[in-house]
Amino acid sequence: MYSHSKPSGLSIVTVALILGLATHLAASMPYIPMRARHVANVADLRESYDYIIVGGGTAGLTVADRLTEDGEYTVLVIEHGYFYDANDVLGGGRQAAQYNLTSVPQPMLGNKTAPVDIGHCVGGSSAINGMAVMRGTAEEYNIWAELGGEGSTWDWDGMLPYFKKAMHFMPPDAALAADFHISYDIESAWGQYEDTRVYASYPGSYMSPQLLTIYNAMSVMPGVDVPADGHAGTHGLFYYPVSVDPRSMTRSYSRTGHWDNLNRTNYEIITGSRADEILFDGSIANGVAFVPKDGNVTTATTVKATKEVIIAAGTIHTPQLLQLSGIGPADLLEQANIPVKVDLPGVGSNFQDHPLGPSVAYRWGTTPPSPINSTGGFGGFGPGTRFPPMTQGLGAFLSLPVVSPDNYDAIAAKYESQDLADYVPETTAESVLAGYKLQQEIYAREMRSEEVSFLNQLIGGTPGAMPIGLHVTSRGTVRIDPMHPEAEPLVDYAALTNPVDMDLMIAYVRFVRRFMESEPFAPYNATEVYPGASVTSDDDLASWIRGVYTPRGYHPIGTASKMPRELGGVVDEGLLVHGTERLSVVDASIMPTLIGGTTQLTVYAIAEKAAALIKSRQ
Ligand SMILES: Cc1cc2nc3c(=O)[nH]c(=O)nc-3n(C[C@H](O)[C@H](O)[C@H](O)COP(=O)(O)OP(=O)(O)OC[C@H]3O[C@@H](n4cnc5c(N)ncnc54)[C@H](O)[C@@H]3O)c2cc1C
Ligand SMILES: *[C@@H]1O[C@H](CO)[C@@H](O)[C@H](O)[C@H]1NC(C)=O
Ligand SMILES: *[C@@H]1O[C@H](CO)[C@@H](O)[C@H](O)[C@H]1NC(C)=O
Ligand SMILES: *[C@@H]1O[C@H](CO)[C@@H](O)[C@H](O)[C@H]1NC(C)=O
Ligand SMILES: *[C@@H]1O[C@H](CO)[C@@H](O)[C@H](O)[C@H]1NC(C)=O
Ligand SMILES: *[C@@H]1O[C@H](CO)[C@@H](O)[C@H](O)[C@H]1NC(C)=O
Ligand SMILES: *[C@@H]1O[C@H](CO)[C@@H](O)[C@H](O)[C@H]1NC(C)=O
User: Which ligand is nearest to the CA of 110?
Assistant: First the structure.
């Protein structure tokens, strides 16, 4: 057993926050944190702002901070949720800070629905997420540029400066790094800017010594690389940091990094307010109408924007707001009686998330001996605190040839020979289908390459794993309900509608088995307890997987993709909405394809790049 030592530098305020005494302390302390302006009442809003940002989440607050930092421009953020104490969120009070949303029934999952978890508070999903900090491989961003067309700057080289700006890297304790073989390469991968206050660190809390047992076994699986830093463009087996400020051991997120303690009169936020229409003068976006979250929703308020309206409402609500504003598939808008401003069929299409496969569970016959004796460098919270037990830290990110050396080519060949029209709704627009087909060509190529990760196996200290798919071939939709346009949109993951997604998941499950049967584990006589060693045929595996597959991996993207209009894209290379002027989208919805990792760091980087693009337009 290793013990949780109490970190020495913990201040009394931090301890109080952990114990939930924040409100008592705040009342008795003379220090009042300076903030940008929280406008409590619509009557106190200015008539117009240079920029209005819809959504005070991960991307929204990042862009707001950058646009207000030199004092030249006024910015209003309109946020649907309220301020929320993220330390409560850590303790599991997450429901209050997230939307209560489920998908439409999924026919390939026996008509089950799937939850749709997204943040609903100042900070958005960054306030409630699992805090893993990951990045795709270089090739996964190069694909964005390939889909964007000649001259695109959204490739790896064009993203790297913004990854460095997005998070401030704090190196791990040397003893912790040595014990666990954590390596990192600041020069190639990370930034440490003073004005970047979202932190990435390896606090080491709850890192089980048994991680190393599994690390040692994975590092000798055929084809598995161990890069110096998994954030430098290639993947394999590596430790990834978490968004925790290691000095205070608290969640580091868009609110703490891009709102708290900013003393700026030109940066305002109004909460509890739902934007429900972008206003236009011809094709120029010049304002936003919003309604109160609670209370009399017939009373809309309008505010004007003189330079740009920026949408950062996230992958589910950005397409909803565009559709409510007359920008979307014409047939859908007509059914909902919304006048068509721009017929843009891509709005709400190309929806993707990382599917979570079923847990392939094992039990050790003989528990492996602890590979580490020292507890040097461990810090963080002990049991009983409100910080969640973190199984975060170590993961394998593997290309398909490594996952399935015998079968990757057959999967790629099956996928590339499909007529995709057979696997999407008949109503899918031609432009959208053209974009899907280009993605198909690219993915079939990448299924045979070692430059893109398909399987993510997160490694805790226990045997077995739950495979996570990093790239899906099915494409879902987010559309307003034509009968109730103002209600929550209809979210359809279209789970397993392309059968190749099942082939991929079967390959992932087989990899987990091959790994558990690998030589380093031989002394420990692991037994498969779930689904059980008798479930072996493709058909048996498929029916087991179908019962426990969840298409919701917390990383929804793609509903306002950055692609050309003729490929079903919604925003251009400058993130401006096709067919409009002075209207941009800056959140996770602009990613045209998933990346091989969790999405927050990429969202922060998109937002940093967006802020630079927006400033350059002035
Ligand atoms: C439970 C969970 C766990 C996750 N775990 C991880 C993880 O461990 N690592 C990782 O990297 N990523 C993780 N993610 C994903 C990551 O957090 C998201 O990809 C990212 O935060 C999305 O940022 P965004 O700016 O696109 O949207 P959000 O941060 O969700 O912001 C959208 C904001 O817009 C507001 N809004 C919506 N509609 C309106 C409207 N009409 N008017 C006004 N405001 C509106 C919302 O209230 C919200 O605050 C997780 C996400 C969730 C939900
Ligand atoms: C969430 O939605 C369900 C179904 O619409 C409803 O029964 C439930 O009360 C809602 N929960 C909350 C917390 O709003
Ligand atoms: C799923 O729902 C559809 C539409 O209501 C129905 O036709 C189909 O039979 C259902 N499938 C299952 C497995 O229940
Ligand atoms: C905030 O800004 C105002 C105006 O510039 C200044 O008077 C005040 O001292 C600042 N407060 C802090 C805490 O920096
Ligand atoms: C809501 O606002 C409308 C328009 O101002 C008003 O006519 C109506 O009485 C209000 N309803 C409630 C319940 O306050
Ligand atoms: C841990 O300590 C034991 C007893 O001192 C020793 O036999 C063993 O080799 C040590 N293991 C490691 C990994 O250092
Ligand atoms: C391995 O475990 C199985 C199942 O628990 C058991 O039947 C078998 O005897 C064990 N073998 C060894 C060598 O311990």
Answer: 3
Task: Please give the domain boundaries of the chain with CATH numbers for all domains.
Answer: 97-261+350-373+386-617 (3.30.560.10)
**Residues in contact with 272: Cβ distance below 8 Å, sequence separation at least 6, in sequence order:** 79, 80, 81, 82, 292, 293, 294
520 is written with which tokens?
A: 């380093």
Cα angle: 478, vertex 484, 485; to 5 degrees: 55
C-beta of 107 in contact with ligand 3 (< 6 A):
yes
- What is the number of the ligand 3 atom nearest to the C-alpha of 110? 13
Task: Say if CB 173 and CB 346 are below 8 A apart.
Answer: no
425 ligand 3 Cβ < 6 A:
no
Task: Show the low-confidence residues of the chain (pLDDT under 70).
Answer: 1-35, 87-93, 204-206, 373-391
Predicted structure pTM score: 0.92
Residues lining ligand 7, Cβ inside 6 A = 365, 525, 527
175-234 per-position pLDDT tens digit:
778 888 999 999 999 999 999 999 999 876 567 778 889 999 999 999 999 999 999 999
User: Are the beta carbons of 222 and 405 closer than 8 angstroms?
Assistant: yes
Please report the beta strands in 231-365, taking only residues with DSSP state E, as ranges in sequence order: 237-239, 244-245, 250-251, 267-270, 273-281, 284-292, 301-311, 327-328, 342-343, 360-363
